[in-house]
Amino acid sequence: MTGRVLLLLSLLVLSLVLFTAESAVARGPNPNPIEFIKFSCRATRYPAVCVQTLTRYAHVIRQNEQQLAITALTVSMSMTKSSASFMKKMTKVKGIKPREHGAVQDCKENMDNSVDRLNQSVKEMGLTAAGNVMWRMSNVQTWVSAALTDQNTCLDGFAHPQMDRNLKASIRARVVDASQVTSNALALVNRFASKIETP
Ligand SMILES: *[C@@H]1O[C@H](CO)[C@@H](O)[C@H](O)[C@H]1NC(C)=O
Question: According to its UniProt record, which protein family does this protein belong to (predicted)?
Fold first, then answer.
């Protein structure tokens, strides 16, 4: 064989090897952080909301299940906080009927509790490196689930047909957004927890 043929052959082999390696990577389940987020969000009840709220943190999440769950919880906490502060403003609005005022007040307390539970959950997830991972994750699952119940309890308070429509609509808009993000965070927490139990 001439040197030229050998060179051609080795180039051919090299490009085959490179091609195979590249397609093996591309065929993996999550070729990049955005794809990882999209894939993981399929486990949630509101996947479009999940992708929309988390992709901006792709650089933090990378392809790490724990980081994904912590980020989802942090987003949920911050949205719940802002709807809690909206409720606080609403309790001070004059001219609201007693029934409505009572519901707003209850809702504010529920949302404050929800923020506390989410805050505690973010902290607990940060402590998993210190050990007791399964126990801590089970605490987080309990608290996030309770935080979601708090938000739904707030919404239930406005279910009465005689509630003022405009008030109900403006409160629902905020709390529903927070509760969808919280429901998603719970799904991602559960997903992470299940991966620890069955690695
Ligand atoms: C939780 O709340 C405390 C007290 O309000 C605050 O200092 C802390 O930053 C919060 N934690 C998180 C993770 O936001």
Answer: Belongs to the PMEI family.
Cα torsion for 68, 69, 70, 71, to the nearest 10°? 50
Tens-place pLDDT, residues 88-126: 999 998 888 999 999 999 999 999 999 999 999 999 999
* CB-CB contact of 164 with 115 (8 Å): no
Q: What is the pTM of this model?
A: 0.83
Task: Please give the number of the atom of ligand 1 that sits closest to the Cα of 123.
Answer: 13
CA of residue 76 to ligand 1 center, whole Å: 14
pLDDT tens figures, 5-35: 555 555 444 444 444 444 434 444 566 999 9
Centre of ligand 1 from the C-alpha of residue 77, in Å: 10
Report the distance separating Cα 52 and Cα 87, nearest Å.
Answer: 25
Regarding the domain delimited by 64-197, which CATH topology (the fold level of the hierarchy) does it fall under? Butyryl-CoA Dehydrogenase, subunit A; domain 3 (1.20.140)
